[in-house]
Design a protein that fits this description.
single chain; 411 residues; alpha/beta; Spore Coat Polysaccharide Biosynthesis Protein SpsA, Chain A; eight-stranded mixed β-sheet; five-stranded mixed β-sheet; 13 helices; 19 strands; elongated; disordered N terminus
Length: 411
Protein backbone atom coordinates (compact mmCIF):
# COMPACT_ATOMS: atom_id res chain seq x y z
CA UNK A 1 0.00 0.00 0.00
CA UNK A 2 1.50 3.36 -0.95
CA UNK A 3 2.68 5.77 1.67
CA UNK A 4 0.79 9.03 2.04
CA UNK A 5 2.59 11.91 0.35
CA UNK A 6 2.77 15.22 2.19
CA UNK A 7 3.29 18.31 -0.02
CA UNK A 8 2.62 20.71 2.84
CA UNK A 9 2.15 24.35 1.94
CA UNK A 10 3.08 27.07 4.42
CA UNK A 11 0.49 29.79 3.79
CA UNK A 12 -3.12 30.31 4.79
CA UNK A 13 -4.00 32.75 2.02
CA UNK A 14 -6.04 31.84 -1.08
CA UNK A 15 -3.97 30.73 -4.06
CA UNK A 16 -6.62 30.97 -6.76
CA UNK A 17 -4.18 31.21 -9.65
CA UNK A 18 -3.13 27.57 -9.60
CA UNK A 19 -6.66 26.34 -9.02
CA UNK A 20 -8.18 28.45 -11.79
CA UNK A 21 -5.48 27.27 -14.18
CA UNK A 22 -7.38 23.98 -14.08
CA UNK A 23 -10.71 25.72 -14.63
CA UNK A 24 -11.77 23.08 -17.17
CA UNK A 25 -12.03 20.60 -14.28
CA UNK A 26 -15.46 20.48 -12.67
CA UNK A 27 -15.49 20.16 -8.89
CA UNK A 28 -18.53 19.08 -6.88
CA UNK A 29 -18.83 19.23 -3.11
CA UNK A 30 -20.60 16.77 -0.83
CA UNK A 31 -21.31 18.08 2.66
CA UNK A 32 -22.09 15.15 4.94
CA UNK A 33 -24.86 16.18 7.33
CA UNK A 34 -26.81 13.01 8.00
CA UNK A 35 -25.46 12.18 11.49
CA UNK A 36 -27.31 12.47 14.77
CA UNK A 37 -24.41 13.85 16.88
CA UNK A 38 -25.39 12.05 20.09
CA UNK A 39 -22.32 13.32 21.99
CA UNK A 40 -23.25 16.92 21.28
CA UNK A 41 -26.50 16.94 23.21
CA UNK A 42 -28.91 19.80 22.63
CA UNK A 43 -32.30 19.80 20.96
CA UNK A 44 -31.24 18.51 17.57
CA UNK A 45 -28.36 17.34 15.35
CA UNK A 46 -25.21 19.41 15.83
CA UNK A 47 -24.97 20.41 12.17
CA UNK A 48 -27.99 22.66 12.73
CA UNK A 49 -26.68 24.22 15.95
CA UNK A 50 -25.87 27.90 15.48
CA UNK A 51 -22.51 29.62 15.47
CA UNK A 52 -22.81 33.42 15.62
CA UNK A 53 -26.49 33.04 14.79
CA UNK A 54 -25.98 30.84 11.73
CA UNK A 55 -26.29 27.02 11.44
CA UNK A 56 -22.97 25.17 11.21
CA UNK A 57 -24.10 23.59 7.94
CA UNK A 58 -24.74 26.99 6.39
CA UNK A 59 -21.26 28.25 7.32
CA UNK A 60 -19.70 25.35 5.42
CA UNK A 61 -22.05 25.63 2.45
CA UNK A 62 -21.39 29.36 2.04
CA UNK A 63 -17.63 28.82 2.11
CA UNK A 64 -17.83 26.39 -0.81
CA UNK A 65 -20.35 28.43 -2.79
CA UNK A 66 -18.00 31.42 -2.61
CA UNK A 67 -15.05 29.49 -4.05
CA UNK A 68 -14.48 30.07 -7.78
CA UNK A 69 -13.38 26.49 -8.50
CA UNK A 70 -16.49 24.83 -7.04
CA UNK A 71 -19.14 23.86 -9.61
CA UNK A 72 -21.89 22.59 -7.31
CA UNK A 73 -22.59 21.88 -3.66
CA UNK A 74 -24.84 19.05 -2.45
CA UNK A 75 -25.69 18.12 1.13
CA UNK A 76 -26.30 14.57 2.32
CA UNK A 77 -28.92 14.73 5.06
CA UNK A 78 -30.97 12.48 7.35
CA UNK A 79 -34.41 11.59 6.05
CA UNK A 80 -36.02 13.21 9.11
CA UNK A 81 -34.27 16.58 8.66
CA UNK A 82 -35.91 17.91 5.51
CA UNK A 83 -37.66 20.89 7.07
CA UNK A 84 -34.71 21.75 9.32
CA UNK A 85 -32.33 21.55 6.38
CA UNK A 86 -34.55 23.76 4.22
CA UNK A 87 -34.65 26.44 6.91
CA UNK A 88 -30.89 26.28 7.51
CA UNK A 89 -30.02 26.67 3.82
CA UNK A 90 -32.78 29.03 2.64
CA UNK A 91 -31.63 31.21 -0.23
CA UNK A 92 -28.47 29.22 -1.02
CA UNK A 93 -27.90 27.88 -4.53
CA UNK A 94 -27.46 24.24 -3.50
CA UNK A 95 -28.24 21.07 -5.41
CA UNK A 96 -31.17 19.01 -4.15
CA UNK A 97 -30.16 17.18 -0.95
CA UNK A 98 -29.46 13.45 -0.93
CA UNK A 99 -30.75 11.15 1.82
CA UNK A 100 -27.90 9.52 3.73
CA UNK A 101 -27.35 5.96 4.91
CA UNK A 102 -26.87 4.14 8.19
CA UNK A 103 -23.16 5.05 8.41
CA UNK A 104 -21.05 7.98 7.29
CA UNK A 105 -19.46 5.81 4.63
CA UNK A 106 -22.88 4.84 3.31
CA UNK A 107 -23.96 8.48 3.29
CA UNK A 108 -20.94 9.50 1.22
CA UNK A 109 -21.61 6.63 -1.16
CA UNK A 110 -25.21 7.79 -1.60
CA UNK A 111 -23.93 11.26 -2.44
CA UNK A 112 -21.37 9.93 -4.91
CA UNK A 113 -23.99 7.81 -6.65
CA UNK A 114 -26.23 10.86 -6.99
CA UNK A 115 -23.36 12.72 -8.66
CA UNK A 116 -22.62 9.72 -10.89
CA UNK A 117 -26.23 9.77 -12.10
CA UNK A 118 -25.88 13.32 -13.45
CA UNK A 119 -25.70 13.85 -17.19
CA UNK A 120 -22.18 15.21 -16.64
CA UNK A 121 -20.57 13.82 -13.45
CA UNK A 122 -17.82 16.00 -11.96
CA UNK A 123 -14.11 15.47 -12.51
CA UNK A 124 -13.32 15.98 -8.83
CA UNK A 125 -15.23 15.88 -5.58
CA UNK A 126 -14.65 17.38 -2.15
CA UNK A 127 -16.18 15.59 0.84
CA UNK A 128 -16.68 17.75 3.92
CA UNK A 129 -18.09 17.32 7.42
CA UNK A 130 -20.94 19.75 8.11
CA UNK A 131 -19.67 20.05 11.68
CA UNK A 132 -16.50 21.84 10.49
CA UNK A 133 -17.93 25.33 9.86
CA UNK A 134 -14.86 27.61 9.72
CA UNK A 135 -13.43 26.79 6.33
CA UNK A 136 -10.95 29.12 4.62
CA UNK A 137 -10.57 29.24 0.86
CA UNK A 138 -6.84 28.53 1.12
CA UNK A 139 -7.54 25.04 2.45
CA UNK A 140 -9.78 24.32 -0.53
CA UNK A 141 -7.09 25.62 -2.87
CA UNK A 142 -4.43 23.38 -1.40
CA UNK A 143 -6.58 20.27 -1.61
CA UNK A 144 -7.52 20.94 -5.24
CA UNK A 145 -3.94 21.74 -6.24
CA UNK A 146 -2.74 18.42 -4.83
CA UNK A 147 -5.21 16.52 -7.04
CA UNK A 148 -3.10 17.45 -10.06
CA UNK A 149 -0.58 14.81 -8.93
CA UNK A 150 -2.47 12.54 -6.55
CA UNK A 151 -5.72 10.58 -6.54
CA UNK A 152 -6.76 12.12 -3.23
CA UNK A 153 -5.76 14.87 -0.82
CA UNK A 154 -6.44 15.51 2.86
CA UNK A 155 -5.87 18.69 4.90
CA UNK A 156 -4.07 17.80 8.10
CA UNK A 157 -2.11 19.22 11.03
CA UNK A 158 0.89 17.58 12.71
CA UNK A 159 0.37 16.06 16.14
CA UNK A 160 2.31 18.22 18.59
CA UNK A 161 1.22 16.79 21.96
CA UNK A 162 2.86 13.78 23.56
CA UNK A 163 0.69 10.71 23.02
CA UNK A 164 0.10 8.09 25.71
CA UNK A 165 -1.54 4.68 25.47
CA UNK A 166 -3.56 3.63 28.51
CA UNK A 167 -4.72 0.29 29.77
CA UNK A 168 -8.19 -0.66 30.95
CA UNK A 169 -7.42 0.85 34.37
CA UNK A 170 -6.62 4.21 32.69
CA UNK A 171 -2.97 3.94 33.66
CA UNK A 172 -0.27 4.69 31.10
CA UNK A 173 1.20 1.61 29.48
CA UNK A 174 3.25 3.25 26.69
CA UNK A 175 4.27 6.49 25.05
CA UNK A 176 3.38 6.61 21.36
CA UNK A 177 5.96 8.30 19.09
CA UNK A 178 4.30 11.26 17.40
CA UNK A 179 6.76 11.59 14.51
CA UNK A 180 4.91 11.36 11.18
CA UNK A 181 1.49 11.52 12.88
CA UNK A 182 -1.12 13.94 11.54
CA UNK A 183 -4.63 15.05 12.51
CA UNK A 184 -6.83 14.64 9.44
CA UNK A 185 -9.46 17.24 8.60
CA UNK A 186 -11.91 17.88 5.79
CA UNK A 187 -12.66 18.72 3.01
CA UNK A 188 -10.98 15.66 1.59
CA UNK A 189 -10.57 15.85 -2.17
CA UNK A 190 -10.61 13.08 -4.74
CA UNK A 191 -10.64 12.40 -8.42
CA UNK A 192 -14.28 11.48 -8.81
CA UNK A 193 -13.94 8.25 -10.76
CA UNK A 194 -11.36 6.92 -8.29
CA UNK A 195 -13.32 7.55 -5.10
CA UNK A 196 -16.56 6.30 -6.67
CA UNK A 197 -14.90 3.04 -7.68
CA UNK A 198 -13.33 2.66 -4.23
CA UNK A 199 -16.70 3.13 -2.50
CA UNK A 200 -18.42 0.68 -4.82
CA UNK A 201 -15.73 -1.94 -4.18
CA UNK A 202 -15.40 -1.36 -0.42
CA UNK A 203 -15.55 -4.68 1.49
CA UNK A 204 -17.20 -3.09 4.57
CA UNK A 205 -18.66 0.15 5.93
CA UNK A 206 -16.13 0.63 8.74
CA UNK A 207 -13.41 2.71 7.07
CA UNK A 208 -12.34 5.66 9.22
CA UNK A 209 -12.82 8.18 6.41
CA UNK A 210 -12.82 8.40 2.63
CA UNK A 211 -9.05 8.85 2.45
CA UNK A 212 -8.61 5.59 4.37
CA UNK A 213 -10.91 3.85 1.91
CA UNK A 214 -9.11 5.23 -1.14
CA UNK A 215 -5.67 4.41 0.25
CA UNK A 216 -6.81 0.86 0.97
CA UNK A 217 -7.59 0.49 -2.73
CA UNK A 218 -3.96 1.30 -3.54
CA UNK A 219 -4.36 4.94 -4.55
CA UNK A 220 -2.07 7.84 -3.71
CA UNK A 221 -3.38 10.24 -1.05
CA UNK A 222 -1.54 13.48 -0.30
CA UNK A 223 -1.46 15.52 2.88
CA UNK A 224 -1.73 19.30 2.58
CA UNK A 225 -1.68 21.92 5.29
CA UNK A 226 -4.94 22.19 7.22
CA UNK A 227 -6.08 24.95 9.54
CA UNK A 228 -6.55 25.11 13.30
CA UNK A 229 -9.84 26.91 12.72
CA UNK A 230 -11.20 23.76 11.03
CA UNK A 231 -12.22 22.38 14.40
CA UNK A 232 -14.87 19.65 14.23
CA UNK A 233 -17.76 20.30 16.59
CA UNK A 234 -18.36 17.14 18.62
CA UNK A 235 -19.49 18.51 21.97
CA UNK A 236 -21.09 21.74 23.17
CA UNK A 237 -17.66 22.74 24.52
CA UNK A 238 -16.29 22.63 20.95
CA UNK A 239 -18.99 25.04 19.85
CA UNK A 240 -18.03 27.40 22.67
CA UNK A 241 -14.39 27.25 21.54
CA UNK A 242 -15.42 28.20 18.02
CA UNK A 243 -17.55 31.08 19.32
CA UNK A 244 -14.51 32.40 21.18
CA UNK A 245 -12.27 31.89 18.16
CA UNK A 246 -14.71 33.65 15.89
CA UNK A 247 -15.11 36.56 18.27
CA UNK A 248 -11.36 37.01 18.40
CA UNK A 249 -10.75 36.86 14.66
CA UNK A 250 -13.70 38.78 13.21
CA UNK A 251 -15.02 42.28 13.31
CA UNK A 252 -18.42 43.76 12.54
CA UNK A 253 -18.63 46.51 9.95
CA UNK A 254 -21.48 48.73 8.80
CA UNK A 255 -21.80 50.45 5.44
CA UNK A 256 -24.28 53.05 4.20
CA UNK A 257 -25.54 53.47 0.65
CA UNK A 258 -27.62 56.13 -1.09
CA UNK A 259 -28.87 56.39 -4.63
CA UNK A 260 -31.45 58.34 -6.63
CA UNK A 261 -32.91 58.01 -10.12
CA UNK A 262 -35.21 60.38 -11.94
CA UNK A 263 -38.49 59.42 -13.53
CA UNK A 264 -38.73 59.30 -17.31
CA UNK A 265 -40.88 57.68 -19.96
CA UNK A 266 -41.88 54.08 -19.32
CA UNK A 267 -44.51 51.68 -18.08
CA UNK A 268 -42.72 50.18 -15.06
CA UNK A 269 -39.98 50.66 -12.48
CA UNK A 270 -37.61 48.02 -11.11
CA UNK A 271 -37.18 48.25 -7.35
CA UNK A 272 -35.39 45.73 -5.18
CA UNK A 273 -35.14 43.38 -8.14
CA UNK A 274 -38.92 43.41 -8.71
CA UNK A 275 -40.67 44.81 -11.80
CA UNK A 276 -43.56 47.07 -10.72
CA UNK A 277 -46.08 48.46 -13.23
CA UNK A 278 -46.15 52.29 -13.19
CA UNK A 279 -47.03 55.16 -15.51
CA UNK A 280 -43.38 56.25 -15.58
CA UNK A 281 -40.00 54.58 -15.73
CA UNK A 282 -36.70 55.35 -14.02
CA UNK A 283 -33.84 56.71 -16.09
CA UNK A 284 -30.34 55.32 -15.76
CA UNK A 285 -27.52 53.56 -17.58
CA UNK A 286 -28.58 50.13 -16.25
CA UNK A 287 -32.11 49.13 -15.26
CA UNK A 288 -32.02 52.04 -12.74
CA UNK A 289 -32.92 49.83 -9.78
CA UNK A 290 -32.29 52.47 -7.17
CA UNK A 291 -32.81 49.99 -4.32
CA UNK A 292 -30.22 47.45 -5.42
CA UNK A 293 -27.77 50.23 -6.27
CA UNK A 294 -28.02 51.61 -2.73
CA UNK A 295 -27.52 48.12 -1.29
CA UNK A 296 -24.40 47.63 -3.42
CA UNK A 297 -22.91 50.88 -2.17
CA UNK A 298 -23.71 49.93 1.42
CA UNK A 299 -21.83 46.65 1.00
CA UNK A 300 -18.89 48.29 -0.79
CA UNK A 301 -18.83 50.88 1.96
CA UNK A 302 -18.59 48.26 4.68
CA UNK A 303 -15.65 46.76 2.79
CA UNK A 304 -14.05 50.16 2.09
CA UNK A 305 -14.06 48.96 -1.51
CA UNK A 306 -15.09 51.95 -3.60
CA UNK A 307 -18.62 52.34 -4.92
CA UNK A 308 -20.86 50.96 -7.63
CA UNK A 309 -19.58 53.48 -10.18
CA UNK A 310 -16.03 52.28 -9.55
CA UNK A 311 -16.87 48.64 -10.20
CA UNK A 312 -19.43 49.24 -12.98
CA UNK A 313 -18.60 52.56 -14.70
CA UNK A 314 -21.63 54.13 -16.41
CA UNK A 315 -19.33 55.03 -19.29
CA UNK A 316 -19.03 51.34 -20.26
CA UNK A 317 -21.55 50.10 -22.79
CA UNK A 318 -21.56 46.63 -21.23
CA UNK A 319 -23.73 47.89 -18.38
CA UNK A 320 -26.34 49.67 -20.50
CA UNK A 321 -29.72 48.29 -19.51
CA UNK A 322 -28.05 45.68 -17.28
CA UNK A 323 -29.97 43.79 -14.63
CA UNK A 324 -28.80 45.26 -11.33
CA UNK A 325 -28.97 41.81 -9.75
CA UNK A 326 -25.52 41.16 -11.21
CA UNK A 327 -24.21 44.26 -9.43
CA UNK A 328 -25.49 42.98 -6.09
CA UNK A 329 -24.07 39.53 -6.82
CA UNK A 330 -20.68 41.14 -7.39
CA UNK A 331 -20.85 43.09 -4.13
CA UNK A 332 -21.82 39.94 -2.23
CA UNK A 333 -18.97 38.08 -3.93
CA UNK A 334 -16.49 40.72 -2.79
CA UNK A 335 -17.54 40.03 0.80
CA UNK A 336 -17.01 36.30 0.31
CA UNK A 337 -13.58 36.85 -1.25
CA UNK A 338 -12.53 38.61 1.96
CA UNK A 339 -13.75 35.69 4.08
CA UNK A 340 -16.71 37.78 5.25
CA UNK A 341 -20.44 37.22 5.67
CA UNK A 342 -23.34 39.55 5.25
CA UNK A 343 -25.31 39.59 8.47
CA UNK A 344 -28.12 41.98 7.54
CA UNK A 345 -29.32 44.24 4.72
CA UNK A 346 -31.73 47.12 5.37
CA UNK A 347 -33.26 49.08 2.47
CA UNK A 348 -35.50 52.17 2.68
CA UNK A 349 -37.22 53.49 -0.46
CA UNK A 350 -38.44 57.09 -0.58
CA UNK A 351 -41.21 57.91 -3.05
CA UNK A 352 -44.82 59.04 -3.30
CA UNK A 353 -45.62 56.45 -5.97
CA UNK A 354 -45.65 53.58 -6.77
CA UNK A 355 -46.79 52.10 -3.50
CA UNK A 356 -44.08 49.80 -2.19
CA UNK A 357 -46.12 47.95 0.46
CA UNK A 358 -47.79 45.44 -1.89
CA UNK A 359 -44.37 44.47 -3.28
CA UNK A 360 -42.33 44.49 -0.06
CA UNK A 361 -42.30 40.73 0.49
CA UNK A 362 -41.37 40.07 -3.14
CA UNK A 363 -38.47 42.52 -2.84
CA UNK A 364 -37.22 40.91 0.35
CA UNK A 365 -37.37 37.47 -1.23
CA UNK A 366 -35.57 38.63 -4.38
CA UNK A 367 -32.80 40.41 -2.46
CA UNK A 368 -32.38 37.39 -0.15
CA UNK A 369 -32.09 35.08 -3.15
CA UNK A 370 -29.50 37.25 -4.90
CA UNK A 371 -27.41 37.67 -1.75
CA UNK A 372 -27.79 34.08 -0.53
CA UNK A 373 -29.33 35.21 2.75
CA UNK A 374 -32.12 33.95 4.93
CA UNK A 375 -35.26 36.07 4.57
CA UNK A 376 -35.03 37.31 8.15
CA UNK A 377 -31.71 38.99 7.30
CA UNK A 378 -33.29 41.34 4.74
CA UNK A 379 -35.47 44.36 5.57
CA UNK A 380 -37.32 46.55 3.06
CA UNK A 381 -39.15 49.69 4.18
CA UNK A 382 -40.77 52.59 2.39
CA UNK A 383 -41.71 56.14 3.23
CA UNK A 384 -42.81 59.33 1.52
CA UNK A 385 -41.26 62.78 1.91
CA UNK A 386 -44.62 64.40 2.71
CA UNK A 387 -44.75 66.03 -0.73
CA UNK A 388 -41.45 67.83 -0.05
CA UNK A 389 -38.43 67.90 -2.35
CA UNK A 390 -37.91 66.08 -5.63
CA UNK A 391 -39.42 62.85 -4.31
CA UNK A 392 -42.44 64.76 -3.03
CA UNK A 393 -42.88 66.33 -6.46
CA UNK A 394 -42.66 62.80 -7.93
CA UNK A 395 -39.58 63.64 -9.97
CA UNK A 396 -37.74 60.50 -8.89
CA UNK A 397 -37.11 57.84 -6.26
CA UNK A 398 -34.40 57.79 -3.58
CA UNK A 399 -33.07 54.85 -1.63
CA UNK A 400 -31.07 54.54 1.59
CA UNK A 401 -29.40 51.26 2.56
CA UNK A 402 -27.43 49.83 5.45
CA UNK A 403 -25.29 46.68 5.26
CA UNK A 404 -23.89 44.88 8.28
CA UNK A 405 -21.12 42.41 7.59
CA UNK A 406 -18.85 40.15 9.61
CA UNK A 407 -15.30 40.34 8.29
CA UNK A 408 -12.01 38.70 9.05
CA UNK A 409 -10.26 41.15 11.34
CA UNK A 410 -7.18 42.84 9.92
CA UNK A 411 -4.01 42.89 11.98
Amino acid sequence: MPAIASPLLPDREPCYAAVMAKSSMTTAVLIVAAGRGSRFGGDGPKQYATLAGQPLLRWAAEAFLAHPAVSSVCCVIHRDDGATYAAATAGLALAAPVIGGATRQASVRHGLEALAALAEPPDQVLVHDAARPLLFSGVIDRVLNALAEHNGAVPALPVVDTLKRAGSDQCIVATVPRADLWRAQTPQGFRFADILAAHRAAPHDDFTDDADLLQASGQSVALVEGDEALLKVTTAADLSRLEALLAGTREMRTGFGYDVHAFGPGDHVTLGGVRIPHDKGLTGHSDADVGLHALCDAIYGALADGDIGHHFPPSEAAWRGADSAQFLEHAVGRVAERGGRIMHLDLTLVCERPKVGPHRDAMRARIAAIAGLALDRVAVKATTSEKLGFTGREEGIAAHAVATISLQASS
